[in-house]
Amino acid sequence: MNILRIGLLQQHNTASRTDNMRRIAEGISDLARRGAELIILQELHNGLYFCQEERVDYFDQAEPIPGPSTQFYGELAKSLGVVIVTSLFEKRAPGLYHNTAVVIEKDGSIAGKYRKMHIPDDPAYYEKFYFTPGDLGFHPIDTSVGRLGVLVCWDQWYPEAARLMAMQGAQLLIYPTAIGYDSHDTPEEQQRQREAWTTVMRGHAVANGLPVVAVNRVGFETVSGEDKPYSPKEPGIRFWGSSFVAGPQGEWYHRASESEEESPVVEVDLDHGEQVRRWWPFLRDRRIDSYGGITRRFLDEDSSAPSPAHRTPEDSTG
């Protein structure tokens, strides 16, 4: 068995970046004391989820990588001997910004980074205003605790992203997340959406024979930072928490509260996925000769169909 102890930090953020980072540091320290070797933070964890509005002054929150946050979390990682998955608002150049996950090695160095590839643009999630789509591709990050397939939030709805990470040897799929309820929806619709969110990622676990970790924000946030009920004049998001760890057959290892902060430490056997893949060899049975259309936006009668693939002797034998 190859047991990895994973710490999740599901937190409610306020308008005070200093206070958020102080509480994150306390949470990381507590998780390390309880034996966590890998600690995963939620999406854009240093501040409020500012993408609820389109305002140019919010770009002032962005920072370079390396920069102040990577130094802050790097010092924590080194002092505690843990690997930390952070999620930062990256300023790459004037007018060029990314939503970037940075993995900090236990010696405090940057093991690698991933720039969010799929960028949403929905009411209260105006991310296309702020973030340039990632240009680093889908590549796992090697660390002292394993090869991590790090993706970010909206990426979690795309099986292609998870598959490409799995095909390059990722041992774990990780999703820092900021997702919540639309206050206009009925309670029934809100729960359908939350269940769809967990279901699709558990599907990635099953399809790829890998554990999946998602760490979400929790609590109500407005861009002003005031915790008050939703109103049409000042909208907000109630993040649904529910951070979780699922195994390579989609089984629950842990599922956090919808409404409360949590910091569980969850044990995952990284070797179990290999046994699952022996039972269910999906990678072996993929028909890679027949998937050419997947790289097109949509296949309809106006599209030119991909040329037929060369048939091999294996194909003719059924």
Would you write up a description of this structure?
The chain is α/β, with parallel strands linked by helices. The protein has one domain: Nitrilase/N-carbamoyl-D-aminoacid amidohydrolase (4-Layer Sandwich). It is 24% helix and 25% strand. It has seven helices and 15 strands. The chain has helices at 17-33, 68-80, 159-167, 187-208, 272-279, 282-285, 313-316, and strands spanning 3-9, 38-41, 83-93, 96-104, 110-115, 141-143, 146-150, 172-177, 180-181, 212-216, 218-221, 237-240, 244-246, 252-255, 265-269. The chain has a six-stranded mixed sheet with strand order 5-4-3-2-1-15. Strands 6-7-8-10-13-14 form a six-stranded mixed sheet, covered by helices on one side. Strands 9-12-11 form a three-stranded antiparallel sheet. Strand 2 (38-41), helix 2 (68-80) and strand 3 (83-93) form a beta-alpha-beta unit. Helix 3 runs parallel beside helix 4. The chain starts with a strand and ends with a helix. 39% of the residues are buried.
Distance between the termini: 38 Å
CATH C-level label: Alpha Beta
Q: How much is the average pLDDT? A: 92
Question: Which spans have pLDDT < 50 for at least 5 consecutive residues?
Answer: 310-318
CATH topology: Nitrilase/N-carbamoyl-D-aminoacid amidohydrolase
**CATH homologous superfamily classification:** Carbon-nitrogen hydrolase
Question: What is the helix/strand order?
Answer: EHEHEEEEEHEEHEEEEEEHHH
Number of strands: 15
Overall 3D geometry? Answer: globular
Gross CATH architecture: 4-Layer Sandwich
Give the C-alpha Rg: 20 Å
- Tally of discrete structural domains: 1
Number of helices: 7
**Strand order within the widest beta sheet:** 5-4-3-2-1-15
Helix content: 10-25%
Structural class: alpha/beta
Strand percentage, roughly? 15-25%
